């Protein structure tokens, strides 16, 4: 069993020195394949669903190469890693489409707390009730993926105390999202939120994991993991995706894996537990102390990930994608992007220089991967 996978990638644009500059209006008008966010300082592209990790690597790199070439011609602009306005700019909203009423609502309700960059990982599951069970499990384990992906320790040129400032301040909406017991429960709940005005539309469900599809909440065909900070290295992103896919295959094949039946906690207690875990992972990422949903015991995020890795390694190997899972070990060994940046800052490198070095390293990594692993990538 191989599952289809796809990504929604949001990235900031700006100068090689790390100043974030709003360019999405120009990008959208001049390049195909890119979409605007409410704030013009970041831009989104989406990869088509694919079973193949090799194809996904090229699908991640190709739009970025096209965008980089365009930005270079525009005025030596570039793509900026990280998931927050690291150096400056959180005091203002820079609208990409002043006529959009939904963007009006977002700006006035949430301000720049939503002006973040991230990656959403979508994995195909066609049976809606299996999808709901998968969402229940992965929502309990989403903090592990945040711990691996954290890349936003700075805001406005200062450390914040978070490894993922993005998730630490992000306005999850509605305030309380239950564990959906069935597809019918999900449909009923979403419609209730729309009537009550707690959701402005079916997209306005901002939680760590949600079911997704072409006609929400009725026609659903994929799990969307929304908690991850932006992961600029495609190999690292594919490793996290491989962990998610192998875990989902395990869940699909074993109906007994379900927080509603395998945990001593009530559904409401499970939500409280995972929300606390999310905040712990946003603060300390791989070093966070988390509570297992299975029994409430405490475990460092890094150790829980290692356990899960060992548990699903055989599945990834059997399905032929264990080579894409293996780089996860490097993340656990050297730390995520936020931890690496904070270590540089700790030894005296100023934040602006940390970001400038990361911009260069990201571009060099993309060039290396294109030349070695994705020779088919062409403009």
Describe the SSE topology.
Elements: E1 5-14, H1 24-30, E2 34-36, E3 42-46, H2 53-75, E4 78-80, H3 101-110, E5 119-124, H4 128-149, E6 154-155, E7 158-159, H5 165-169, H6 183-196, E8 209-212, E9 222-225, H7 234-253, H8 259-262, H9 267-284, E10 289-291, E11 298-300, H10 301-319, H11 322-325, H12 328-334, H13 337-346, H14 351-373
Antiparallel strand pairs: 1-3, 1-4, 1-5, 2-3, 5-9, 6-7, 8-9, 10-11
Q: Care to describe what's here?
A:
By secondary structure, this protein is of the alpha+beta class. The chain has helices spanning 24-30, 53-75, 101-110, 128-149, 165-169, 183-196, 234-253, 259-262, 267-284, 301-319, 322-325, 328-334, 337-346, 351-373; strands at 5-14, 34-36, 42-46, 78-80, 119-124, 154-155, 158-159, 209-212, 222-225, 289-291, 298-300. The strands form three sheets. Strands 1, 2, 3, 4, 5, 8 and 9 form a seven-stranded antiparallel sheet that branches.
């Amino acid at each position: 069993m191989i599952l289809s996978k796809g990504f929604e990638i949001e990235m900031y644009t700006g100068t090689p020195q790390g100043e974030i500059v709003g360019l999405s209006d120009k990008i959208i008008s001049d390049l195909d394949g890119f979409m605007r966010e409410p704030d013009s300082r970041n831009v989104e592209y989406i990869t088509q669903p694919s079973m193949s990790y090799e194809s996904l690597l090229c699908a991640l790199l190709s739009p970025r190469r096209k965008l980089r070439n365009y930005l270079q011609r525009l005025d030596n602009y570039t793509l900026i890693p990280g998931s927050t306005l690291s150096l400056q700019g959180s005091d203002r909203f820079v609208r990409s489409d002043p006529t959009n009423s939904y963007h009006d609502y977002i700006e006035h309700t949430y301000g720049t707390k939503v002006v973040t960059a991230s990656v959403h990982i979508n994995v195909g599951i066609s049976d809606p009730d299996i999808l709901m069970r998968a969402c229940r499990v992965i929502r309990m384990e989403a903090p592990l993926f945040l711990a691996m992906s954290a890349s936003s320790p700075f805001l406005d040129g200062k450390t914040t105390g978070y490894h993922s400032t993005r998730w630490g301040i992000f306005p999850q909406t509605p305030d309380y999202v239950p564990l959906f017991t069935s597809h019918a429960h999900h449909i009923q709940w979403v419609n209730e939120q729309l009537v009550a005005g707690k959701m402005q539309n079916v997209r306005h469900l901002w939680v760590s994991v949600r079911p997704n599809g072409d006609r929400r909440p009725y026609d659903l065909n994929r799990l969307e993991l929304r908690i991850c900070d932006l992961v600029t290295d495609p190999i690292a992103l594919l490793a996290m995706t491989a962990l998610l896919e192998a875990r989902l295959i395990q869940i699909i094949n074993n109906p007994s894996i379900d927080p509603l039946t395998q945990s001593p906690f009530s559904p409401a207690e499970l939500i409280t537990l995972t929300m606390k875990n999310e905040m712990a992972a946003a603060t300390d990422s791989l070093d966070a102390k988390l509570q297992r949903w299975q029994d409430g015991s405490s475990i460092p995020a890094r150790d829980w990930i290692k356990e899960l890795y060992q548990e699903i390694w055989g599945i990834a190997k059997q399905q032929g994608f264990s080579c894409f899972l293996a780089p996860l070990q490097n993340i656990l060994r050297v730390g995520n992007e936020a931890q690496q940046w904070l270590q540089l800052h700790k030894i005296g490198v100023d934040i602006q220089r940390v970001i400038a070095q990361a911009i260069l390293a990201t571009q060099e990594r993309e060039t290396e991967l294109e030349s070695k692993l994705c020779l088919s990538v062409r403009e």
